[in-house]
Design goal:
The chain is mainly α and 448 residues long. The chain contains 20 helices and no strands. The chain is globular. 50% of the residues are buried.
Length: 448
């Protein structure tokens, strides 16, 4: 499993901005490995060495694999140094395998990402990518009450006349622009929300449905438990993941989606599944492809059709003002533009393999059929098996990963979201063997 994680993120760092057949093959092999893991339903127990190997090896990959970044000189060196410190210090703390050391490792991950984001944003104040330009100017327009779907972007090196996301991407990121001049500050904040969510996800619920260890919390170790270690491993692994510097620099928005999905999982685990509708709806109102997850969630008995329909309805209501303002512009930017958008040749997918290597572009209906088939197979399996929450998160990761592999537009950030969901599932893994197993009721609490 550690090898798959490192190979996956390592080739993703290499994939920006280049297409290589070995990258496609590696991503496919990892997807097949994840599918096999789900089919076999093997128990996950992270040994202590996993918490040491993954951060250290991630740092090695960061320094040795080609890294795309607009940072230069001392700023790039500073960013690399921050990730290195987080990886090495996190590994040293995780090597102890104790709840107290895990708490410190988690704190290092959260603080380390905040410092990394500051270095990247200050070191590259105007990244040359349309994502950043669009989000910046959409935030400005939002403050003036303008419709982002009828706007034209000035100075964009790519898309210039469309807002290709759902509107709540702009709404949730705009405060970073309004308060500090850059939407990437909001993305950094949402990443911190994600990292804190991993810890909240791991806390066993009490029998009354509240979070926390059973019994009153007293003393300096209050709230700690063996569950803190897997959560810290997941947090450190995400912060030092190869390519993370590029993700911050390019203003890619997947951490916003991951935060919504993780807090959906937190609330479901705490027995507050109806409240979980809210973060799920916000995530779905931010980016289109999360609609692929809804059939799987509807098929999962612990969430079900009614709550999934409520989340979809709330997401639709959140988007409705922009649709009503200009239906044609909204549908063009969020649907037809993306369906008809030209393939970008450094997307490492099978669609681009056929196009780049053989000059053949698969028809849209074939891509759609493969994606729909994958979603249907996952939903049927989830309905039949009734998996626990960690396994359900891995099914969601597999659906997105499979869809990415056959799409014509899938890059580091889309593939990263699958990794984030797997990391969230690992936050729910049993503690390392140096710690006692949780009480049976805590194990049961991780079930859907």
């Amino acid at each position: 499993m550690a090898g798959g994680w490192l190979a996956y993120l390592g080739v993703l760092q290499w994939s920006v901005v280049r297409f290589r057949v070995p990258i496609v093959l590696t991503l496919t092999a990892v997807a097949l490995g994840l599918a096999a893991w789900l089919v076999l339903r093997r128990e996950v127990r992270l040994p202590v060495w996993w918490g040491v190997l993954v951060p250290v090896a991630s740092v090695v990959l960061l320094w040795t694999v080609p890294l795309f970044s607009y940072l230069r000189g001392g700023w790039l060196t500073a960013a690399l140094a921050v990730v290195t410190v987080v990886g090495v210090l996190g590994a040293l703390l995780l090597a102890r395998g104790t709840p107290g050391a895990a708490d410190l490792a988690h704190l290092v991950a959260v603080a380390g990402h905040a410092v990394l984001a500051a270095v990247v944003i200050l070191g590259d104040r105007a990244p040359r990518i349309d994502v950043w330009v669009i989000l910046q100017q959409a935030s400005d327009g939002l403050a003036r009450g303008e419709n982002m779907y009828s706007a034209t972007w000035t100075g964009s090196p790519g898309v210039q006349d469309a807002f290709p996301y759902l509107p709540w991407t702009a709404v949730l990121l705009a405060p970073g622009r309004w308060l500090f001049g850059d939407v990437r500050w909001s993305l950094a904040a949402w990443t911190v929300v994600l990292l804190l969510g991993l810890r909240a996800l791991a806390v066993p619920p009490r029998p009354d449905g509240a979070a926390g260890a059973a019994g009153p919390a007293r003393g300096p170790s209050a709230g700690r438990g063996p569950w803190a270690w897997p959560a810290a491993v997941a947090a450190v692994a995400l912060v030092v993941a190869p390519g993370g510097i590029t993700q911050v620099d390019q203003a890619w928005t997947e951490p916003l989606l991951a935060a919504g999905l993780v807090w959906w999982a937190v609330l479901v685990r705490r027995g507050q599944a109806w409240w979980a509708v809210v973060p799920l709806a916000l995530a779905c109102a931010s980016k289109q492809h999360l609609v692929l997850l809804l059939p799987v969630l509807a098929a999962w008995p612990a969430f079900g059709v009614k709550r999934t329909a409520a989340a979809a309805g709330l997401a639709g209501a959140l988007c409705l003002p922009w649709f009503l303002a200009s239906p044609a512009d909204f549908l063009h930017d969020t649907v037809t533009l993306l369906v008809g958008f030209h393939p970008i040749r450094f997307a490492n997918t099978w669609h681009l393999y056929l196009l780049n290597e053989h000059g053949v572009e698969p028809p849209f209906w074939l891509t759609g059929l493969l994606v729909v088939g994958t979603v249907a197979a996952a939903a049927l399996t989830v309905a039949r098996r009734r998996p626990d929450l960690p396994e359900l998160l891995r099914w969601l990761a597999l659906v997105l990963l499979a869809a990415n592999l056959v799409n014509k537009q899938a890059f580091y950030n889309q593939f990263w979201l699958s990794a984030a969901l797997v990391a969230a599932s690992l936050a729910l893994a049993p503690p390392p063997l140096t710690e006692p197993r949780p009480a049976p009721r805590d194990v049961a609490a991780t079930r859907g």
